[in-house]
Specification:
Layout (H helix, E strand, L loop, with lengths): L3 E4 L3 H13 L3 E7 L6 H5 L2 E6 L10 H11 L3 E3 L9 H9 L3 E2 L4 H8 L1 H10 L15 H11 L3 E9 L2 E6 L5 H16 L4 E5 L5 E9 L5 E13 L2 E7 L6 H18 L3 E10 L2 E8 L6 H8 L3 H9 L16 E8 L11 E2 L2 E3 L6 E5 L6 E2 L6 E9 L2 H14 L1 E3 L5 H9 L1 H4 L7 H11 L2
Helix pairs in contact: 4-5, 12-13
């Protein structure tokens, strides 16, 4: 079993990993930039090592500094969390070349799924349904026109190495495709150093459904149900729930079986999430995240499983020890991401936390690393907390989240809590009647009404 884990991350996810390690009797090493010297994950770790200045490039993305910290502290494993180096195949390889366990998938699978074209080709061969579109990268504009005519407008031009909504442009008609092609390639080149793009049919009212899976090194793969992550603004998730109010039990069982059979044939190891667009009863694979997701707590709440603990067990070589039949889902869970942003303009709001009160009570969980006096640095992601609730039914979960949001106090910076309160009170959300375009329209309507 792993005895000491270096956590190559910061904030709430670093603290989340620490908690799992502590309960397993595993020592932890926190790495941090100079801007995070007073961060909670640094305070609570068994050991801490400063790895560079505030810039992520010089600290949390500094592979040499992270490996040096692991060496000098005697860590025998590294957990990358999410973001930063979590889906960097070269990092995973380097970690294992240095004799350390990488608490995540193999470098091969990270590399395969990190390129969206290769990921789609792989999943097609494994029998997973895809969004209609190009078979691979588009060599030129003429090829894009031909595929678009074949699948029908509107279409979406997407960066092969993309993520987070960058390098994605919609062409509503043939008149738009040249501009979409040019802009998507330019954004992809600037963001990822790779201007390869591909084309997909643009679905006008889909939901974003993702499936949580775990695989061990012994050929066992299970899933832990789906999450509905359709509430997004500019392709950034804001609220997630498990399970989806749109799926039937039969659909849930079908996509779970399809996904686990595919990943079992791949020999997939550790945690992963398959993402689909779902419309009119059809699932279409779009990508796979080879890491722990931000929204993993809703799955933990409905399945009563510690996914980080399972990741560590798998990285230690242990078998899952259970089958799909042993995984039981109960009740409903909702997660609200609490970002330090203006709830109307969405401009980041770094600053010092003057008052902080976390809500409590039955079925309420707050994952956060902030505290009174903590200064939110301007260098990193604006998410400062995740508020998660669990209840027997979706209606009860909504009521519990409304109560928890009302209790939550964060003073000193602006947050998106008021926006969450409006979303939870909206009749369409309460009925579960929304798509990936709903939140953009909701925000626009709120702003127009002022």
């Amino acid at each position: 079993m792993i005895s000491k884990v270096l956590i190559a991350n910061r904030g709430e996810i670093a603290l989340r990993i620490q908690r799992a390690c502590r309960e397993m009797g595993i020592k932890t090493v926190a790495v941090h930039s100079t801007a995070d010297a007073d961060a909670m994950h640094v305070r609570l770790a068994d050991e801490a090592v400063c790895i560079g200045p505030p810039s992520a490039r010089d600290s949390y993305l500094n592979v040499a500094a992270i490996l040096s910290a692991a060496t000098i502290t005697g860590a025998d494993a590294i957990h990358p969390g999410y973001g930063f180096l979590s889906e960097n195949a070269e990092f995973a390889e380097t970690v294992e070349e240095h004799g350390l366990a990488f608490i995540g998938p193999t470098a091969e699978h990270i590399r395969t799924m990190g390129d969206k074209i290769t990921a789609k080709t792989t999943m097609r061969a494994l029998g997973v349904p895809l969004v209609p579109g190009s078979d691979g990268a588009l060599p030129d504009l003429q090829a894009a026109r031909e595929v678009a005519e074949k699948v029908g407008y509107p279409v979406l031009i997407k960066a092969a190495a993309g993520g987070g909504g960058r390098g994605m442009k919609v062409a509503q008609t043939a008149d738009d495709i040249e501009e979409a092609w040019s802009v998507a390639r330019a954004e992809a080149r600037a963001a990822f150093g790779n201007d390869e793009v591909y084309l997909e049919k643009y679905m006008n009212r889909p939901r974003h459904i993702e499936l949580q899976v775990l695989g061990d090194a012994h050929g066992n793969v299970v899933h832990f149900g789906e999450r509905d992550c359709s509430l997004q603004r500019r392709h950034q998730k804001l609220l997630e729930e498990a399970g989806s109010p749109a799926l039937t039990d039969a659909e849930r069982e079908e996509i779970g079986r399809t996904a686990t059979e595919a990943l079992s044939r791949m020999g997939y190891r550790n945690a992963g999430t398959l993402e689909f667009l779902y419309q009119d009863g059809q699932f279409c694979f779009i990508e796979m995240n080879t890491r722990l997701q931000v929204e993993h707590p809703v799955t933990e709440m409905v399945c009563n499983v510690d996914l980080v603990r399972e990741q560590i067990r798998i990285a230690s070589g242990e078998p899952l020890g259970y089958t799909q039949a042993d995984v039981k889902m109960s009740g409903h869970a909702i997660e609200c991401r609490i970002n330090a942003e203006d709830p109307e303009t969405f401009m980041p709001s770094p600053g010092t936390i003057k008052v902080f009160h976390a809500p409590g009570g039955l079925g309420v969980r707050m994952d956060s690393a902030i505290y009174v006096g903590y200064r939110i640095p301007p260098y990193y992601d604006s998410m400062i907390a995740k508020l998660i609730v669990h209840a027997p039914t979706r209606a009860e979960a909504i009521a519990r989240m409304q109560r928890a949001l009302d209790e939550c106090v964060v003073d000193g910076v602006k947050t998106v809590i008021p926006l969450h309160q409006k979303i939870l009170a909206d009749p369409s959300f309460q009925k579960g009647d929304y798509t990936i375009h709903w939140l953009e329209n909701f925000v626009a309507a709120q702003q127009a009404g002022k």
